[in-house]
Amino acid sequence: MIESEEFKLMKMNLEIHCKKFEIREWTKKFHKMLKKLIKKTKPIIQLNVTKIREKNNNLKHCIIDFECTEPKILGLLLRNKLYQIYLIKPEYQLYFHEAVLSVLFKLKDFYFFSWGNWERRVILSMRSKLKDIKNTKNLHFIDDLNLFNLQERNYESLEAALFSIGRKPPKELFFRDARFIDHAYNEGYLEPILEHNSNCLISALIMLKYRWLKKNLV
């Protein structure tokens, strides 16, 4: 059954709120699970965690952003921590897919927000690529994943959206062009891509707080 946008918003308003101790416990468990996952896959996948200056709220939301045409980096902004999971050895792409879906499963009760619909397509593509080598029975949660697009219209740029609420966009290293990001990754320039990913996540969080939630949260 396909849910209407109105129903999804009503459901979000009913479910996104939680008690302070609950979200603290969820975050703690997620952090523990993530460290365990990275320890197991460290030669292939690495983790970068950055604390940002952000006042926490009691809402179950997470910003998500992938980098590279064939995603090699997953950025998540959860409460006041920015998590970046990235693939060091591109020949192990399927291991990265599996790790990403494991992470999303741990956060399946949260509401995800992204700038555009690309993240949803990436997640569905990852599941499709894994189905030939892995039992996808445990991946049915993806069909029910709560993922909202923060754009007000198709192809709305993040820079234009920030200007519309009186915010100055951060300096853009790659002109939001995946070809430049792919080239940087292939040349081993991970730091600039992680910085770009951080900027995208923080900018999306600003749009969530100061535009999307103001219009949609009851």
What does the model show?
- This protein is of the alpha/beta class and 218 residues long.
- The protein has one domain (5-216).
- Helices cover 47% and strands 16% of the residues.
- It contains seven helices and six strands; from the N terminus they run H-H-E-E-E-E-H-E-H-E-H-H-H.
- The chain has helices at 5-15, 20-41, 93-106, 118-130, 158-164, 178-186, 190-216, and strands at 45-51, 61-67, 73-78, 81-87, 111-114, 146-149.
- The protein has a six-stranded mixed beta sheet, with helices on both faces.
- Helix 3 packs across helix 4 (118-130).
- It is globular, with a radius of gyration of 17 Å.
- It starts with a helix and ends with a helix.
- The mean pLDDT is 93.
Structural class: alpha/beta
Helix content: 40-55%
What count of helical segments does DSSP give? 7
Computed over alpha carbons, the radius of gyration is: 17 Å
Task: Count every beta strand, where a strand is a DSSP E run of 2 or more residues.
Answer: 6
For the terminal residues, how far apart are their CA atoms?
25 Å
Order of helices and strands: HHEEEEHEHEHHH
Q: What would the principal axes of the Cα set say about the shape? A: globular
Strand ordering within the main sheet: 1-4-3-2-5-6
Poorly predicted sequence stretches spanning 5 or more consecutive residues: none
- The pLDDT mean sits at 93
- Main β-sheet, in a few words? 6 strands, mixed
Residues in β-strands, percent: 15-25%
Number of domains: 1
